[in-house]
């Protein structure tokens, strides 16, 4: 015979310890991290959905819930700098375990269960801690999981020789060949410290469409070749430091791309460092086993057009509106297009931009144009007030076309290099005719075949119809068809 009170106790004890993680999450976390885990108030608070902070070991998140977290922290490639209050005094171990089990298995997260015992142990280990954690402290105890390498089918070849610049490796015989299963570029198979070269080949698997940032430094020299184009190169002999670090941004389609790195070491210190980050900062990591440490002073990381392609730089750029898009053409003529004012606002020649200040977080400091003599054409909206920016497209050569809509009128605004310090701007419209502001801050003088703007810019406008009013130069765009302008910088 089963006694009723026996069944009752069995029923009571089991569910009594099973806390409802979802319910507790709503009560204790969702005000800041949102019910959907994306971070409350439109992402002002960091997300838990897809966050690397709650992956693998649960200890990292347990400690954050127990003691709180404050100061700068990066989550999914985005910087935050707020404070999360400690909850260890309010929440018992089984409730923390239930919340974190829920967080680790919701919204696409896929990490294991957290038991009350794990929390008890973690709490005991840091019992004498009074202050909230900083990101640096917690990462020292519980480092973040590494992003899996996007390099598949990686092979390495080692060559012996004394080189002070890149040899033609394909004409040489390799001393050693390895398949590098871990997808990490390393000098560990070099077998010597001086007078050698290495070549790595792989498929770079881009996780999605968009802009990829690569940074490269090595001692002594080398280069990175993506889809048979040299994208980065370090010349000559020298140490691996900020002054010899190069970076570039490449627009890639998701999927497989051929990838090759060539490298040589003369003598002295050797090393190679290559990092990548994917679209919207969602992915990032090192492709090498040594990562160049950021010196306390921001290193110089020139962003340059590569192999005949324009470089696009989309971060805060000094001297223009928050949505400024930098374009560096091969040949050394550069501009910033403001997506707020729908106009090319800054023009300069020489080096494009230096991304050194943005080594870690994105867009922390505005990046100044790297060249000299930056000329400002305008700083107010180019179109009537109801004009809207609708994004931009890149043609196969990497040249951008900005898309603008004014009611039912569609305007495209295309830029391409035109030799020397010149570029061509082609505006097409479909809809109604409209007036566009070309220049407003510099003195404007008519020339025989165009306009002189300030001392350094000449503008040819073909047969477009100009309007000069109070030193402001406008053009009339017809209701359909193309208008081609040519800007030349001295
Ligand atoms: C009062 C707002 C607030 C509450 C409530 C809160 N958090 Fe946070 N949380 C934050 C902030 C802000 C940060 C980032 C702190 C910083 O900038 O240093 C953070 C960071 C985190 C992180 C690390 C970064 C990330 O996004 O993955 C985790 C994990 C986390 N919180 C989990 C939780 C859990 C679980 C709860 C509920 C028990 C919770 N938080 C409750 C505000 C809050």
Give the topology, please:
Layout lengths: L3 H14 L3 H8 L1 H4 L6 H4 L15 H9 L1 E7 L2 E7 L8 H12 L11 H10 L9 H7 L9 E10 L15 E4 L16 E11 L3 E10 L1 E6 L2 E6 L11 E7 L2 E11 L5 E7 L6 E3 L15 E2 L7 E3 L10 E6 L3 E6 L4 E7 L3 E2 L17 E5 L10 E8 L5 E7 L2 E9 L4 E9 L3 E6 L4 E4 L2 E4 L3 E4 L4 E5 L2 E6 L2 E10 L1
Antiparallel strand pairs: 1-2, 3-4, 3-5, 5-10, 6-9, 6-11, 7-8, 7-10, 11-12, 13-18, 14-15, 15-16, 16-17, 17-19, 20-21, 21-22, 22-23, 23-30, 24-29, 25-26, 26-27, 27-30, 28-29
Helix pairs in contact: 2-6, 5-7, 6-7
The chain binds heme C.
Protein name: PA14 domain-containing protein
Organism: Haloferula helveola
Keywords: Heme, Iron, Metal-binding
Task: Give an account of the 3D structure.
The longest helix has 14 residues, at 4-17. The protein contains eight helices and 30 strands. It is flat. Strand 26 and strand 27 (457-460) form a beta hairpin. It starts with a helix and ends with a strand. The protein has helices at 4-17, 21-28, 30-33, 40-43, 59-67, 93-104, 116-125, 135-141, and strands at residues 69-75, 78-84, 151-160, 176-179, 196-206, 210-219, 221-226, 229-234, 246-252, 255-265, 271-277, 284-286, 302-303, 311-313, 324-329, 333-338, 343-349, 353-354, 372-376, 387-394, 400-406, 409-417, 422-430, 434-439, 444-447, 450-453, 457-460, 465-469, 472-477, 480-489. It is mostly beta strands and 490 residues long. It has three domains: 16-141, Cytochrome Bc1 Complex, Chain D, domain 2; 151-293, Sandwich (Jelly Rolls); 311-489, no CATH class. An eight-stranded antiparallel β-sheet has the order 20-21-22-23-30-27-26-25, with no helix packed on it. Bound molecules: heme C.
């Amino acid at each position: 015979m089963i006694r009723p009170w026996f069944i009752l106790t069995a029923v009571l004890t089991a569910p009594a310890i099973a806390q409802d993680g979802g319910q507790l999450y709503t009560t204790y976390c969702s005000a800041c991290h949102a019910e959907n885990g994306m971070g409350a108030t439109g992402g002002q608070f960091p997300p838990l959905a897809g966050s690397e902070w709650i992956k693998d070991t649960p200890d990292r998140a347990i400690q954050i819930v127990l003691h709180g977290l404050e100061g700068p922290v990066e989550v999914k490639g985005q910087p935050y700098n707020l404070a999360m209050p400690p909850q260890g005094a309010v929440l018992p171990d089984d409730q923390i375990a239930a919340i974190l089990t829920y967080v680790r298995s919701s919204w696409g997260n896929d990490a294991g269960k957290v038991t009350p015992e794990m929390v008890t142990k973690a709490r005991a280990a840091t019992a004498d801690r009074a202050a909230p954690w900083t990101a640096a402290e917690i990462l020292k105890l519980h480092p973040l999981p590494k992003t899996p390498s996007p390099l598949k089918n990686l092979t390495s070849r080692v060559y012996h020789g004394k080189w002070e610049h890149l040899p033609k490796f394909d004409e040489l015989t390799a001393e050693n060949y390895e398949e590098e299963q871990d997808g990490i570029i390393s000098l560990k198979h070099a077998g010597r410290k001086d007078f050698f070269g290495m070549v790595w080949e792989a498929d770079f698997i881009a996780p999605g469409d968009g802009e990829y940032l690569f940074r490269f430094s090595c001692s002594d020299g080398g280069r990175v070749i993506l889809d048979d184009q040299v994208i980065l190169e370090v010349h000559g002999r020298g140490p691996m430091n900020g002054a010899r670090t190069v970076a570039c941004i490449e627009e890639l389609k998701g999927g497989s791309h051929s990838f090759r790195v060539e490298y040589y070491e003369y003598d002295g210190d050797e090393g190679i460092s290559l990092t990548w980050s994917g679209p919207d900062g969602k992915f990032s990591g090192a492709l090498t086993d040594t990562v160049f440490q950021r010196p306390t002073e921001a290193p110089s990381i020139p962003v340059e057009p590569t192999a005949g392609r324009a470089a696009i730089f989309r971060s805060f750029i000094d001297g223009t509106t928050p949505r400024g898009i930098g374009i560096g053409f091969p040949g050394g003529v550069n501009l910033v297009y403001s997506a707020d004012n729908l106009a090319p606002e800054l023009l300069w020649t020489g080096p494009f931009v230096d991304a050194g200040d943005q080594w870690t977080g994105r867009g922390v400091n505005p990046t100044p144009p790297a060249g000299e003599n930056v000329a400002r054409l305008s700083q107010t909206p180019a179109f009537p007030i109801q004009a809207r920016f609708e994004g931009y497209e890149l043609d196969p050569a990497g040249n951008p076309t900005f898309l603008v809509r004014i009611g039912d009128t569609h305007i495209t605004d295309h830029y391409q290099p035109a030799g020397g310090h010149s570029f061509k701007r082609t505006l097409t419209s479909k809809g109604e005719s409209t007036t566009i502001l070309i220049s407003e801050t510099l003195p404007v003088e008519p020339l025989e075949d165009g306009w002189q703007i300030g001392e350094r810019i000449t503008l040819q406008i073909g047969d477009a119809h100009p309007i000069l009013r109070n030193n402001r130069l406008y053009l009339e765009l017809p209701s359909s068809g193309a208008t081609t302008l040519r800007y030349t910088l001295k």
